[in-house]
Specification:
The complex is a heterotrimer of chains A (503), B (319) and C (318). Chain A has 503 residues and is of the alpha/beta class. Chain A is built from 17 helices and 22 strands. Chain A folds into three domains: 236 residues, P-loop containing nucleotide triphosphate hydrolases (Rossmann fold, 3-Layer(aba) Sandwich), CATH 3.40.50.300; 175 residues, P-loop containing nucleotide triphosphate hydrolases (Rossmann fold), CATH 3.40.50.300; 76 residues, no CATH class. In chain A, a hairpin with a 3-residue loop joins strand 11 and strand 12. Chain A is globular, with a radius of gyration of 25 Å. Chain B has 319 residues and is mainly α. Chain B has one domain: Orthogonal Bundle (ABC transporter involved in vitamin B12 uptake, BtuC). Helices cover 76% and strands 3% of the residues of chain B. In chain B, the strands form two sheets. In chain B, strands 1-4 form a two-stranded antiparallel ribbon. In chain B, strands 2-3 form a two-stranded antiparallel ribbon. In chain B, 58% of the residues are buried. In chain C, helix 7 packs across helix 11. Chain C has a single domain, classed as ABC transporter involved in vitamin B12 uptake, BtuC, CATH 1.10.3470. In chain C, the strands form two sheets. Chain C has a two-stranded antiparallel sheet. Chain C has a two-stranded antiparallel sheet with strand order 2-3. Chain C is mostly helical and 318 residues long. The longest helix of chain C has 27 residues. The two termini of chain C are 31 Å apart. Classes of the chains: A alpha/beta (503), B mainly alpha (319), C mainly alpha (318). Chains in contact: A-B, A-C, B-C. At the B-C interface, helix 6 and helix 14 of B face helix 6 and helix 14 of C.
């Protein structure tokens, strides 16, 4: 039986600095349903949600709540209209306790404007109990586990009387049991008639909880269907790209005999990486396939030495793995971060300065940078990668995403590494640059480079990789090679029900 | 903060440490000097640190909200001269003028921080500078002595009420009011929230800008009152006094258990912190073995030590 | 495959692009022009010399401050270091000018390292650390000297203070050289590049293999060192130590000069030459106000307003 629509977004368009984040997106939510919203990072999920919750305003399109067209100028207005949000980063004040957080901004008062402590505590306890949340009321919430914080956040969000609840990747940092608890809370809310927008990467949750599913990709709505009976591989395929992306695959060479450059055994760093093992051979490209949230970036950082593992081992050229980026680079291992804005570029410096940053120790004579040599190296790499910039002196933040990425890759190559960790190198860049970079990676492997590669585009991954290891929830599940490395094959593998997980 | 037992326990841990430190200072003082714990000395210390207490209370609000106010010393200097100039109109008028002036100056800080979003340290540093200049430009000489009605004013400033120096009940009332506002009103809780996480507070619907604005205004107003108290005790306004008092205030606040990173702490702790600083330096004065300048080294060193301790605690917690 | 070069720009176009990010030169030109018109005796050689002599201290301190601000930090203790250095200088006089110089530089370096270690090693906010140092260093200087100024007569020091070389004041020559050297270091060495990388994006810098901690530590050490040098210079010029008054509020001048010169408070840029120009601008403005009988007090207010405007503009552009 179809329930009433309680919220609807139509024809939403949003740009940032001229870059299209959302194009003509429709989304509607019914009372008493869980509507899952799926899509890789950069697909536009976050932006859509921020528009629904009043953080952003759409450039065009309509928002309707309860049948009435509205606009939200800020989060407070969205809250007032009954839209409650549980963000990925818990938005509670960590230094205050649960009672304080639940009532913040709306504390019940006694005469003279004094806050009614006793009533606050009573009401807080009641609210939490109603949803089955077991919370220590007196400790600062920052000291309570993420799961508990989340429960508090949910209770607060709903206590405002909203009928719409947006849950943004609520289970990403929870243990198995906590996830169960959260899912049952969510089901209870749904049965109460709340409309829930559920954003997640975990397909199991989608199929367990969702009534309908919407997939966004590259800022567009790709699919909206009832979840029941949906084909899982089709879902993965919709999220991770077109089956026919990418150039002709490089000829899969004899990978069996390749010398192992980098290997990991049961590598873990809670909560994101729980047991990853892989072998990367010289002159081969190993793809790492998995949805966002499967621990791709965290695993790469562990391999690179940017983070320390809590257990497991890494071997680089037979010796224990690097303990810092400086050591890694010195030993010929280089890493391209996923988020180039936060971890990659120094935005106010020029292309030249960014490019030569890694190279600095080799460009110097008595501490002075040999400008002529720097310029020579810079232009060599800019040519080799086809970096389009007015000049090497242009500020790197003024370059297109694709060109920024090329500069960062060039920077890595400057150190003459023997192994590369590329974290979603082709994300957020134009088609031409993608082709350039794909070709470059293939060439590098041909010349003997060992490459570990992740991608949000399964098709690209399939096209480039010799072998692909599947990663889910921080665990490696197996490796596909040869003729199994196709878009369809990878989608199947990622989507497959893992019998061990059903426990 | 709620008055539930565990929270009180947590707050008390830092407070207890502060009280222990205070007791230590008192014990050492009593051991070194028989008059130290005598009523005359204690009352003297209370009177002399009234000004610092007011600055520290204002600073408590600002620091809990995640900011800092380096201009309070300069506000004090300015309002001390305002007090002297208006003393002939009667003390209540002078007091009101001083407080209102302080409030206005504090609101300038509030504007810079909350509206123009300038980093608190640079905003209040700029105010400090501008105020020094303004004070000299408007009032000219360095020390503006009270001439008309001097004896009446001094009688008040150095007088007693119920056996206590007149500053003590004033400070007592301020401390109590501050405690009530901070722990029992919505505004107070908003201050804690903004300091704990500005982003979360904003998303939870708190008007962060207004809270910040109010906090700096309050700090300024209290500095204004401090200027008034200072002037009536000395019988003069001094235009370049106070440079360095803000540091003592920050030290007192930090010693009392308020984390300089914001979001945690309270007025009770600040009161203890002021007493620690006050009695410590009283001890140095009585003892006369510690050179005045070495005292300065201790002053700065104390702040450094407290700051490093808080930094290490925070770092450990983060890891 | 780089893009085709832009077609030849007009003369004004080229001038404008040179000036962009260097608006300070324009401001400098304006101030000079106004002074030339309105201030008597402005456009004389003597006046130029006086200006240069008087801005030496701020220029040196501002240079060090620029390095520290580039990392996203601040150092409020530089004035106190000057006071300490002057005391050390006088104490070491009997041992000759080399000992004096070494002593001053060491004192500054030591304080700088102290600040740096606390900031890098203990993760304490630079503001708070240097705020504490501001007090205890000044107190130390006063304690070591009993709070007194000590006048002295020393030929070498007199030469350092007021002597001339090739017709120019010695201090101006040395200061100019120092500023130039630091500017070159900031722009052309590995250290300088690492400095702005750490300030611009610490996470990216670390992942690119930059030793962030060491770089920041050196910045604070250099800042202290340069303050020590400034302390030596002022002692030589004035002919006495003055633990109480040397360097008071100079940190604000230094911040103003650095910020006006194009170094952003949030870090990521190190315009050393800009800071020098900023110091010049400040000196000219202050002198102009004095010569036109605008009080020192008003000068303070104007200085404050200047810092405010520049900082607010920086925020706007960020």
């Amino acid at each position: 039986m179809e329930q009433a629509t309680i919220a609807r977004l139509s024809g939403i368009e949003k740009r940032f600095d001229g870059v299209l984040a959302l194009a003509d997106v429709d989304f509607d939510l019914r009372a008493g349903e869980v509507h899952a919203l799926l899509g890789e990072n950069g697909a536009g999920k976050s932006t859509l949600i921020k528009i629904l919750t009043g953080v952003y305003q759409p450039d065009s399109g309509r928002i309707e709540v309860g049948g009435t067209a509205t606009t939200f100028r800020n989060p407070a207005e969205a809250q007032a209209a009954g839209i409650a949000t549980i963000h990925q980063e818990i938005h509670l004040v960590p230094t205050l306790d649960a009672v304080a957080n639940l009532h913040l901004g709306r504390e019940p008062r006694r005469p003279w404007g004094l806050v009614d402590h006793r009533r606050m505590r009573r009401e807080a306890a009641a609210m939490l109990a109603r949803y089955g949340a077991d919370v220590d009321l007196d400790r600062p919430v920052g000291e309570l586990g993420v799961a508990v914080q989340q429960q508090i956040a949910i209770v607060r969000a709903l206590s405002l009387g909203g009928r719409v609840l947006v849950m943004d990747e609520p289970t990403s940092a929870l243990t198995h049991r906590e996830v169960e608890h959260l899912l049952s809370i969510t089901e209870r809310l749904r049965d109460d008639g709340i409309g829930i927008v559920y954003i997640t990467h975990r397909l199991d949750e989608v199929f367990r909880l969702a009534d309908r599913v919407t997939v966004l990709r590259d800022g567009r709505r790709v699919l909206t269907e009832p979840a029941h009976g949906m084909d899982r591989p089709r879902l993965v395929g919709a999220m991770l790209g077109r089956p026919d992306t990418g150039d002709a695959r490089r000829n899969p060479t004899q990978v069996g005999a390749a010398l192992t450059v980098l290997s990991a055994r049961v590598l873990a760093r809670e909560p994101r990486v729980t047991g990853a093992s892989l072998d990367l051979g010289q002159g081969t490209i190993l793809g790492l396939a998995g949805l966002q949230g499967s621990g791709r970036t965290e695993l790469m950082r562990l391999l690179f030495g940017a983070d320390r593992p809590t257990s497991g081992t890494v071997l680089l050229n037979g010796a224990p793995g690097p303990r810092s980026p400086v050591e890694a680079l010195a030993r010929g291992l280089a890493y391209l971060p996923e988020d180039r804005k936060a971890d990659g570029i120094v935005p106010d410096l020029s292309v030249r300065e960014n490019l030569s940053l890694i190279l600095l120790p080799r460009l110097t004579r008595w501490g002075f940078i040999r400008r002529s040599r720097e310029r020579a190296e810079v232009s060599r790499f800019m040519d080799r990668l086809g970096v389009r910039a007015a000049s090497p002196e242009t500020r790197i933040r003024d370059l297109s995403g694709g060109n920024q990425q090329k500069v960062l890759i060039a920077r890595l190559l400057c150190t003459a590494p023997r192994a590369l960790l590329l974290d979603d190198p082709m994300r957020g860049i134009d088609v031409g640059a993608k082709a350039d970079i794909a070709r470059l990676i293939a060439d590098l492997a041909e010349q003997g480079m060992a490459v570990l590669l992740t991608s949000s585009e399964l098709g690209e991954l399939a096209a480039l990789s010799d072998r692909v290891t599947i990663l889910r929830d921080g665990r490696t599940l197996g490796t596909l090679s040869g003729s199994d490395v196709t878009f369809a094959g990878l989608a199947e593998a990622i989507a497959a029900d893992d019998p061990a997980e059903a426990a | 903060m709620t008055t539930s037992p565990a929270t009180r326990l947590r707050l008390d841990a830092r407070l207890v440490a502060a009280v222990v430190a205070l007791i230590l200072v008192l014990m050492i003082g009593a051991w070194r000097n028989p008059e130290f714990l005598g009523s005359e000395n204690i009352l003297n210390v209370l009177r002399q640190n009234a000004v610092l207490t007011l600055l520290a209370v204002g600073m408590t609000f600002v620091i809990i909200s995640g900011g800092i106010d380096l201009s309070v010393g300069s506000i004090l200097a300015f309002t001390s001269v305002v007090t002297v100039k208006l003393a002939p109109e009667g003390l209540p008028v002078a007091a009101a003028a001083a407080v209102l002036t302080g409030l206005g100056l504090g609101m300038v800080n509030g504007l810079l921080v909350a509206r123009l979003r300038i980093a608190p340290f640079i905003a209040t540093l700029v105010t400090l500078l501008a105020l020094r200049g303004l004070t000299l430009a408007v009032f000219g000489e360095e020390t503006v002595a009270l001439t008309e009605g001097r004896s009446e004013v001094l009688a008040f400033g150095r007088g007693f009420v119920l056996g206590l120096p007149v500053q003590v009940p004033i400070i007592g009332v301020v401390l109590l009011a501050a405690w009530v506002v901070l722990t029992q009103t919505r505004f107070g809780r908003a201050v804690y929230a903004v300091g704990g996480s500005e982003e979360s507070a904003r998303l939870l619907g708190i008007d962060v800008a207004a809270t910040r604005f109010a906090v700096y205004g309050l700090s300024g107003a209290l500095a204004g009152l401090a200027g008034f108290l200072f002037a009536v005790r000395i019988g003069a306004g001094i235009t370049n006094y106070g440079l360095g008092l803000e540091l003592d205030a920050i030290t007192a606040v930090a010693l009392g258990g308020t984390l300089l990173s914001g979001g945690v702490g309270g007025v009770a702790g600040t009161a203890v912190g002021v007493l620690i600083v006050g009695f410590l330096f009283n001890l140095f004065n009585l003892d006369a073995t510690l050179d005045t300048f070495l005292q300065k080294v201790v002053r700065g060193g104390l702040l450094t030590v407290v700051v490093v301790m808080q930094g290490t605690i925070l770092a450990r917690r983060r890891r | 495959m780089t893009a085709a070069p832009t077609s030849g720009p007009s003369l004004t176009g080229r001038l404008l692009s040179l000036l962009r990010g260097r608006e300070i030169l324009l401001a400098l030109a304006v101030v000079i022009l106004l002074n030339a018109i309105f201030t008597p005796n402005f456009a004389t050689w003597r006046n130029v010399e006086i200006t240069l002599i008087q801005m030496v201290f701020v220029a040196l301190v501002a240079t060090g401050m620029t390095l520290v601000i580039a990392t996203g930090g601040i150092d409020l203790s530089v004035g106190a270091v000057m006071g300490l250095a002057s005391v050390v200088a006088v104490a070491l006089l009997p041992y000759g000018i080399f000992a004096v110089t070494l002593g001053c530089l060491t004192a500054g370096l030591a304080v700088g390292l102290f600040n740096g270690v606390l900031i890098v090693g203990f993760g304490v906010q630079p503001l708070l650390v240097t705020l504490g140092s501001l007090i205890w260093v000044r107190g130390l200087a006063q304690y070591l000297s009993g709070g007194r100024k000590e006048y002295f007569e020393d030929a070498a020091m007199r030469f350092l203070g007021t002597g001339r070389l090739w017709g120019l004041p010695l201090q101006v020559i040395i200061a100019a050289l120092v500023v130039l050297v630091v500017a070159i270091v900031a722009a052309h060495t590995v250290f300088g590049r690492r400095l702005v990388a750490v300030g611009g994006n610490p996470a990216a810098a670390r992942l690119a293999g930059v030793p962030a901690g060491r770089t920041v530590l050196v910045a604070y050490a250099l800042c202290g060192l340069l303050a020590g040098l400034a302390g030596l210079f002022i002692t030589a010029r004035v002919g006495s130590s003055d633990p109480t008054n040397f360097g008071v509020l100079i940190e604000l001048d230094a911040i103003a000069a650095a910020v006006v010169g194009g170094t952003v408070l949030a870090g990521g840029r190190a315009r050393v030459m800009g800071a020098a120009v900023g110091a010049l601008l400040l000196q000219l403005t202050t002198a102009a106000m004095i010569m036109n009988n605008i009080g020192f007090a008003v000068a303070l207010v104007l200085k404050a307003a200047l810092i405010l405007c520049v900082v607010a503009l920086q925020r706007g552009r960020a």
